[in-house]
Amino acid sequence: MKIKIIYYLIFLHLGFNLKGQELNAQVIVNSDLVNQTNQQIFKTLERALNEFINTQVWTNKDFLNQERISCSFVFNLSGYSNDKFEATLQVQSERPVFNTNYSSPILNYLDKDIIFSYQEFQPLFFNESSFESNLISIISFYAYVIIGLDAETFSPNGGSIFFDQARQVVNIAQTTSQKGWKPSDGIRNRFWLIDALRSNTFREYRQSLFIYHRDGLDTMVDDPESGKISIMKAINNMETLFQRRPNAFLLQIFFDAKVEEIVNLFQEGPKVDFKRTEEILKKIAPFFGSRWKQIKA
């Protein structure tokens, strides 16, 4: 009886100290463009990635099951030969809006530099101090970016520690010949993404994430007009970033995720004076000009 009690107490102690997984991810490996008769390798890879991402504990923060961040990783394969994969990767994440059943898109990013090796049933392990494989580094990089961006929407600069961890992944991966980790690999890649997120030069992006979600979306159930005004404030705030860096990577990142939501928000509900914000949108995000014309606020 005493032994059973001791085992129970040990289990109870461990249970209270377990860290919940941070991500609720869906991984899709799309092999439609790959001429491969045996599709089993792609199904095995998909299962392995889903298990890896959703069981890995990425931080030392406590996450309740309902607090896990919804996200998706879609690998669109373009080539496969001798255990070598070529693909693009669409990474998306969202966060719930207070007192609603609605989730707001936070990240919608396409990474075109995806090349990795994988053998069927190869174990996937993450080691924060060493390079295990390019596949592991890519997944862990975006895991930290997703967690960091989510944290930014709840508290000012709340994602800093996670962006630092993403940068550590980049630093280690740079010691390899893999593409997408170095500044010389292109003008918009993993290096430049995390460099921008951590740089004070682009601080308005992070400021606007917080204002948009915490002061804006999270208040709209109780006060939709005030919520809309805060969202306009968040958008207007990024005009300063545009004036400093007209082609800022993070402006594209923001509006790739938010364009549909912004249009929908200001087409419905209480009317607000949207004229100045509309002019700012046309200036800082001209690539969505046809969408901004649909807003009749």
Total number of strands: 4
Rounded mean pLDDT is 92
Separation of the first and last Cα atoms: 71 Å
SSE string: HEHEEEHHHHHHHH
Structural class: alpha+beta
- Shape category: globular
Main sheet strand line-up:
1-2-3-4
Content of β-strand = 15-25%
Q: Low-confidence parts lasting 5 or more residues at pLDDT below 50?
A: 1-18
Biggest sheet: strands, sense, closure? 4 strands, mixed
Question: How would you describe this structure to a colleague?
Answer:
With 297 residues, the protein is of the alpha+beta class. The chain has two domains: 177 residues, no CATH class; 90 residues. Helices cover 48% and strands 16% of the residues. The chain has ten helices and four strands. It has a four-stranded mixed sheet with strand order 1-2-3-4. A hairpin with a 2-residue loop joins strand 2 and strand 3. Helix 3 runs antiparallel to helix 4, helix 4 runs antiparallel to helix 5 and helix 6 packs antiparallel against helix 7. The longest helix has 21 residues.
Task: Please name the defining characteristics of this protein.
48% helix, 2 domains, disordered N terminus, globular, 297 residues, 4 strands, single chain, alpha+beta, four-stranded mixed beta sheet
